[in-house]
Amino acid sequence: MRLKRIDANDDSATATWHGDDAVPFAAVDPFAGNSGASLAWQEAPNRLISDVLALHRVPALLAERLLVAAEAARHRPAAEAHDPLRDLAAALGDCLSFATFSGLWRTGSLALVGPPGVGKTTLAGKLAARARSRRPILVNTDAKRAGATAQLAEFSGVLGVAIGTADDAEALARSLRGRRRRVIIDTSGVNPFDRQAVDVLAGLVRSARAEPVLVLPANVEPDEAVEIVQAFRALPIRRLLATRLDIVRRLGGPLAAASAGDYAIVGGSVTPHFTYGLRPLTPIVLARRLLGAAFDDKHWTTQ
Ligand SMILES: Nc1nc2c(ncn2[C@@H]2O[C@H](COP(=O)(O)OP(=O)(O)OP(=O)(O)O)[C@@H](O)[C@H]2O)c(=O)[nH]1
Ligand SMILES: [Mg+2]
Questions:
Q1: Mean pLDDT of 236-254
Q2: In the chain, where do the E strands start and end?
Q3: Residues with CB under 6 A from ligand 1
Q4: What residues have CB less than 8 Å from 59, skipping those under 6 apart?
Q5: Over the stretch 218-227, which tens digit does the pLDDT of each residue have?
């Protein structure tokens, strides 16, 4: 399979041109003839990466840094010729930070924080399921909201984990005192632009001595993602988890957030199920995903 770049002036392009919304690539069968203006990416590797980053709506400054790093990777002595995947992975590794799922437990307690409805509770279930033999306790900080406790209680029944509730910082600190087990605090979604709500959340996380991990949906709009990161500055967030990777093609939002907050990208969720479907996002996985979306529209599966 080759990559075909669809050009505004290219009448023979098979896909429709929608102005700014154009999909800049189409995969073409190498045996189907050379009717269109295929991009010979071997001769223009940076053009390929630059177009792929544009497809994902990666903010201009970050895209520029990635391109410079990819160019440098290409000229490393050991680099193989014509390997945009490795070049992009190297660039991602140079320009962004990455962390593992196991590293999330450094402080023993995690607090999943983020805007409402982004998948925090579902992720709490997945993380608990992943911990297997060292099952953490799930703590809900949203006991007042109808459905919130019920949702966590369902997870707790299926996963066999203990749950607790704590509505404020003091109750949370009290309920965690003396605990040796890992704890996942499922915080209630806050409007990032409500300063007071963010401050209350910061107090809650501080009192629990938990590490706040930002949860964002993979389809968050890049500029919006940067503003959310800025709005959450009151919290010492160092890591990022993405949700809805199964229903999203463009990843500019999470990349913009990771870059703006200097967060380490850990991984993400690829299904609404709460018992499975976590995937690590390493530089090579991310590069494959970025290029894959441009090459052949493949979505991640839950397998
Ligand atoms: N397709 C898909 N859906 C997801 C994923 N993660 C969560 N969801 C769905 O997103 C919706 C919201 O998920 P929750 O986990 O309740 O989100 P939340 O952040 O806890 O929401 P609040 O507590 O209201 O702030 C649910 O319908 C989930 O099934 C995912 O990775 N992929
Ligand atoms: Mg929730």
A1: 96
A2: 2-5, 25-28, 97-98, 109-113, 137-140, 163-165, 183-186, 211-217, 239-243, 264-269, 278-280
A3: 116-122, 188-189, 243-244, 246-247, 269-272
A4: 222, 223, 226, 252, 255, 256, 259
A5: 999 999 999 9
| CATH 3.40.50.300 intervals, the chain | 98-272
Give just the sign of the alpha carbon dihedral 209, 231, 237, 239.
positive
Write out pLDDT tens, residues 139-164.
888 766 767 777 878 888 888 887 77
- Nearest residue (by CA) to ligand 1, atom 14, is 119
CATH architecture of 98-272: 3-Layer(aba) Sandwich (3.40)
Distance CA 194, CA 190 (A): 8
Q: Which two tokens stand for residue 200?
A: 């209350």
One-letter amino acid identity for 59?
Answer: P
DSSP string covering 54-106 = HHTT--HHHHHHHHHHHHHHHTSTTPPTT-HHHHHHHHHHHHSEE--SGGGGT
